[in-house]
Specification:
two-stranded antiparallel ribbon; 11 helices; about 300 residues; 6 strands; ADP Ribosyl Cyclase, Chain A, domain 1; binds N1-cyclic inosine 5'-diphosphoribose; alpha/beta
Length: about 300
């Protein structure tokens, strides 16, 4: 019958159309799932690939910074109890998160600097270069002096690494740029900002602990101390720099107060109208070195 024929034809037609639609839906689902789950996709996000030569952002950075900040303002320097640690973390994070780590500006840290900086009492600032371990053993033993790491900004960031990434989660935990990758990296710019701040706020007589056992000389003009700090001391506030030239107890004595590199430093200071004095192996620090080498001939003070 013509009526029956046309109805069964249209049913068959509907069945074919539904089948094709179902196949299309399955195809789309399979393609989407493959794109989401394929391993190749993960490799293409920058935060999963090592892009830079240095270590990635320190794990638990937020918790470490917050813990150090609260420790500093409650037990290390309670005079700063009104500093806002949560805000300090937010401003540090805000400076670098979701930013390309070679494309930061020093000004990005300005809000952090405004929140966290504080002054150091006159004649208590202690600078250093290539004596990181010794100088901090000394300030732990002698609470009279402050290095940058004994101020809030230096304390919260000491030995940590951080950098951003333009893709989610905005922080690169795999690798971060070092100086050789690019000099405008988040950690270098942080120490630049903090070193300037530390030097600008110094007053009275300041000290620097240098390493006289280095082959290249104790004073390096491309170091943070030689390239930034001495040029940001304010001669109207700083009268004298005392240089403590320390040799490793068992190491060679390569440099001296009359050597070429210290002369370069004292000439720069003189040209900036800051007096300089120099002492080889400053006794109070040498006593501390000798605690690790009690039998060494250098340490037999009474012979
Ligand atoms: O380049 P440097 O020494 O001369 O820098 C030391 C100088 C000190 O007086 C500090 O005030 O600059 C300041 N400073 C730090 O406090 C600091 N803490 C950790 C500079 N750098 C600092 N670091 C890291 O050590 C930082 O990553 C940088 O690259 C090194 C510099 O140490 P250095 O060459 O011995």
């Amino acid at each position: 019958m013509p009526f029956q024929n046309s109805s069964s034809r249209s049913r068959r037609h509907n069945l074919i159309v539904t089948g094709i639609m179902a196949l299309l839906v399955i195809l789309v689902v399979v393609v989407v799932l493959a794109a989401v789950l394929s391993p190749g996709r993960e490799e293409n996000t920058s935060s999963d690939v090592r892009q830079w030569s240095g270590n990635g952002t320190t794990k638990h950075l937020r918790e470490i910074i917050l813990g150090r900040c609260y420790n500093y303002i409650t037990t290390v320097n309670p005079e700063l109890k009104d500093k806002d640690c949560l805000n300090i973390w937010e401003e540090l994070q805000h400076a670098f998160i979701y930013k390309h780590p070679c494309n930061m500006q020093e000004e990005d840290y300005q809000p952090l600097k405004n929140l966290a900086s504080h002054s150091v009492p006159c004649s208590k600032s202690l600078f250093w270069s290539k004596t990181n371990d010794l100088v901090h053993r000394y300030t732990k033993a002698n609470r009279d002096f402050f290095t940058l790491e004994d101020t809030l900004l230096g304390y919260i960031a000491d030995r940590l690494t951080w950098c951003g990434s333009v893709t989610s989660p905005g922080i690169d935990y795999i690798s971060c740029p070092e100086w050789k990758d690019c000099d405008s990296n988040p950690v270098t710019l942080f120490w630049k900002m903090a070193s300037k701040m530390f030097a600008e706020t110094a007053c009275g007589t300041v000290q620097v602990m240098l390493n006289g056992s280095l082959e290249a000389g104790a004073f390096k003009n491309n170091s943070f101390f030689g390239g930034i700090e001495i040029f940001h001391l304010n001669p109207e506030k700083v009268s004298t720099m005392q240089i403590w030239l320390m040799n490793d107890v068992d190491g060679p004595q390569r440099d001296s107060c009359t050597g070429h590199s210290i002369t370069t430093l004292t000439n720069i200071l003189k040209s900036r109208k800051i007096n300089a004095t120099c002492e080889n192996n400053y006794r109070p620090v040498q006593f501390l070195q000798c605690a690790s080498y009690p039998d060494h001939s250098t340490c037999k003070f009474c012979s």
